[in-house]
Design brief:
It is built from 5 helices and 16 strands. The chain has helices at residues 2-8, 12-22, 40-44, 250-253, 288-291, and strands at residues 72-90, 93-98, 105-117, 120-136, 150-168, 171-187, 208-223, 227-234, 238-239, 260-267, 273-282, 316-326, 331-340, 362-370, 375-389, 403-420.
Amino acid sequence: MIKQYLQHSLPTRHLLVLVSALIAGPVCATNGYFASGYGIKSDGVAGAGIAFAQDSLTVATNPAGLTDIGDAFDIGVDVFLPQRSAILEQGGAATTFDGDGVSTFYIPSVGFAHHPTPDLAVGIALFGNGGLNTDYSVNPFGRFGAQGAAGVDLEQAFLSPSIAYRIGGGQTVGLAVNIAYQRFKAKGIGLFGGFSSDPGEVSNHGYDSSTGAGARLGWTGHFGPYLTLGATWQSKTSMGRFKDYAGLFADRGSFDIPSTYGVGIALAPNSAWNVAFDWQKIDYSDVAAVGDDVASLFAGVPLGANNGPGFGWRDVSVFKLGASYRVNEQLTLRAGASTNRQPIPASQTFFNVLAPGVVETHLAFGGSWHIDARNVINVSYQHAFRKSVDGSGSIPPAFGGGEANLSLQENVIGVGYSYQLGVQDGS
């Protein structure tokens, strides 16, 4: 069914252009560069959803959850407000650099779910998977010879058709096909061309884009009326190379999207309450451009080489706890918290002035107001507390030594709308 849908819809290339138009701003997401949650309802519980499906955006977390929701159309937008900065300490002096040249981003999400039979559900979702952005009007690398403003902009988006089937005994399996689009640009870092296998393909080429595909598998199991378990796995998404940045990223511009996996539990002690807990693992180290240590650069391995230097990110484990409370027929309230060990070691902060994805602890709140049986307004708010990482031996001797210190804080305001299909008006 998914294959038939894709064959008779817009050509894939056109779909990906649509994705790029909809995902209009980058996501400095809260778990490294991955989004903490997908959809406004998920945002309200800090992304806890492997065993707790709330709407059609469950496709982005665990496609097996489709059988647990009704036919629906969901749309939302997150207003993302990050605050990122860096401090370089050299020769006894410390200089602060503001990375907020662009400070407001709008990140939409769209989902649809339908049940052809009681045990079979299909859906499709369009969402921002993650990204990074910094924009320094005063170049932190200017003291080393870099010119102009500096920064990077990475945007990743998924279009995910999906299917879920209830196999019996309260067990459901699901599959989503991730059709991925990403684009990237870098500016003001041309000085690193002197350390590259392709010096002309490091900086100031505007946006380059690539596409790719992967898969997400999921399972949910209902054990009595109160307990649901879930598990999910997303493959590494193989992406085309950024040819215009073949001298920056390892393996001649390769930048795949890491694999992730996780498990979840949800409890429903009564008809009003749901409590969910997730553990998620993101394998950043499996992608050379992200996970390879920058130390190899100063040992003679150039940027852009096979298994060349990267940003030195380690794998991340994320713990999420969320709850929803149905106050009455019209109002549902949500809250949640999550934490992770940020991915950037203290020794790797110099390059990561461009990508300071270091926040760890997040709080979330949200709610839904049922206008009537069909129409629902959803809102959410997330705050990622300021996290600073001080470098340790981070600026290499080739650049005079010293330390690069990173700081990031985030606020996200979400507003969305859900339309419940198959509901009788006036019911």
